[in-house]
Amino acid sequence: MSTIVLAGLHKRFGDFIAVRNTDLTVGAGRFVVLLGPSGCGKTTTLRMIAGLELPTSGRILIDGEDVTELRARQRDIAFVFQMFALYPHMTVRNNIAFPLKNEHVPRHEIASRVDAAARMLRIEQLLDRKTGGLSGGDRQRVALGRAIVRQPKAFLMDEPLGTLDADFRELMCLELRKLHNALSATTVYVTHDQSEAMAMADDLVVMNQGDVLQSGPPHEIYHFPATVFVGNFIGSPPMNFLPVDGAVAAGDERVHLHGAPVAVARCASAAERVLLGIRPEHVVIDEHGPLRGRVIADEYLGSHQVFTIETSAGVVRARASKDAGLAAGAPVGLSFRQDRTLLYDAATGRLMPGAHTGAVHG
């Protein structure tokens, strides 16, 4: 298990800033997911950790050693790509053994490591088959086996499940997490898929336009997104954001949404323009609710329904019981769980400090 530290990591391609002055610590044995939309800088960050890209400035340390200028092969890191990069004319056994042969590992040790990796990945029956005829999922397992046998300091994975269909991708998420637990290895994983990220990560790092916007455990980022972007990007459906009437002062516990009074967690600072953020599951459909609206769409999801409601303050999504019994056009009242309301400075898009920064309850 190794610790990876990024200190002021910056990468520029001409006039384009791909990664901006990033400080990040990946703890030993943690499964850390870099998450964000295409072009946010997550893959560039991973490639700099791997030594496939050199930073414009900043440092990369692995177990305290500065590896910023070291070549990829000198960093003792295994990289798993979206495209498996296997040798189709070679057997599974020889594909997995390939990096060990290049390192001149003794033959008996190669055989032992390959067999152990195959057992772990449950592909022993494939060892003597050519990789060219394997399914996408089996080829992914072979690529993982080739990384595992190296026994590296850390695993770096760049959208390794991106080419798999949805059902198999879900299965492989579970398999990767079990594999990580078995190896206790430090893993940095890149994806744009929040479902993958939430299912596997010990820690999430949300990026956009080269910046790290927030990092921490998935539940913390879900419940307390640091910016409007994070609240919109994490969660399906995303967080609701509604404009508050007028300015908010420190100590306020009530705001108005287009005239409707709403109780909120006590605010510790002031702002001229404010957005109220609330997750759909914390919106209560309440006939006496102060915010009035009309259902314009509903989505039945088996265990629950998601209603889209048009109000005078804006469109609100609310998650309710599968038996809520509301149809399009139905008038409704809405209230919000006070302890789950968040306030954002509309000018900066950042979360305003307040009582909500405590633990999550209920």
Automatic annotation (TrEMBL):
GO terms for molecular function: ABC-type transporter activity; ATP binding; ATP hydrolysis activity. Coiled coil: none annotated. This is ABC transporter ATP-binding protein. CDD domains: ABC_MalK_N. One of its GO terms (cellular component) is ATP-binding cassette (ABC) transporter complex, substrate-binding subunit-containing. The keyword Chaperone does not apply. Residues 4-234 form the ABC transporter domain. Keywords: ATP-binding, Cell inner membrane, Cell membrane, Membrane, Nucleotide-binding, Translocase, Transport. It comes from Caballeronia glathei. GO terms for biological process: carbohydrate transport. Gene3D superfamilies: 2.40.50.100, Nucleic acid-binding proteins, P-loop containing nucleotide triphosphate hydrolases.
